[in-house]
Design brief:
Number of helices: 4
Helix content: 10-25%
Strand content: 15-25%
Number of strands: 9
Shape: elongated
């Protein structure tokens, strides 16, 4: 913005705040590109029998997938999500969310065994949010949670694939993996803000911002250019015989 040494109306704190907002906008734009994710993370825990609510990782932003293993294989404290990869241990299946309209049936279910037990009910999940507050009874911070219904009756491994929140402000500045120099757009946006606050012409910087976002939008989806994402996905496992028991046909697609 060519404002070095200026005593104008824009403070360092204000510049920092605007940079943080611009970085988050870029981060969300890269997330919306989808395809092969830029910032995907994994966490696992061993569920506790009788416990339905589990605190999500502190950096949780958006859920991508929830899968479960029919054995307790995590070497971390039970009920605590941690970065881990249990690999090819036990049998894994993908869990599906439940709706609030189904909650009364899930709470009142008499079939609360693990899914590998005869007659056991397949566990399902739903996200629970939280405002920024502390528990009045314990004083501990209240985190966002993952709710499992029916509540587990035995210990098994729960794995989530998720997108973490943007890493922005640190003691040394603002941190983000800009992938290909794309973090420059955050600097340009902040410079345009500074010029606008000085009531100066921002057209050149805004044009640069538009050009950078056009470049990002054109390239962000092509992270794996050799293998584009498929248009049709067998999410129920119907072609390999691993879907729900009432939909496990061992081959072919539903018409």
């Amino acid at each position: 913005a060519d404002l070095e040494g200026s005593d104008g109306p824009v403070t360092d704190a204000e510049i920092g705040a605007q940079l943080g907002l611009a970085v988050r906008r870029l981060y969300e734009r890269l997330i919306l590109a989808r395809g092969q994710e830029y910032y995907r993370a994994t966490a696992e825990l061993n569920v506790t029998p009788g416990q339905a609510l589990y605190s999500l990782p502190e950096d949780f932003f958006q859920l991508l997938a929830v899968v479960a293993c029919d054995a307790a294989v995590m070497a971390v404290p039970s009920s605590t999500f941690a970065a881990s990869d249990s690999g090819n241990l036990g049998r894994w299946m993908r869990l599906t969310p439940f709706s609030l309209a189904e909650l009364e049936q899930l709470l009142g279910s008499d079939r609360r065994g693990a899914w590998r037990h005869a007659g056991g009910e397949r566990p399902r999940y739903r996200l629970r949010g939280a405002q920024d507050y502390t528990s009045p009874s314990t004083g501990a911070a209240v985190a966002e949670q993952l709710e499992l219904r029916p509540a587990p009756t035995v210990s098994w491994t729960l794995r989530i694939e998720y997108l973490p929140a943007a890493l922005v402000e640190t003691a040394d500045g603002w941190t983000l993996n800009g992938v290909n120099g794309w973090e420059e757009v955050a600097v340009l946006e902040t410079a345009a803000y500074c010029l606008a606050k000085q009531e100066q012409d921002t057209r050149y910087l805004k044009q640069r911002v538009a050009e950078e976002y056009a470049r990002i939008d054109a390239l962000a989806r092509a992270r794996d250019a050799g293998t584009p994402e498929p248009g049709v996905v067998d999410v129920l496992g119907l072609t390999c015989g691993h879907g729900p028991p009432d939909r496990r046909y061992g081959g072919g697609w539903l018409s």
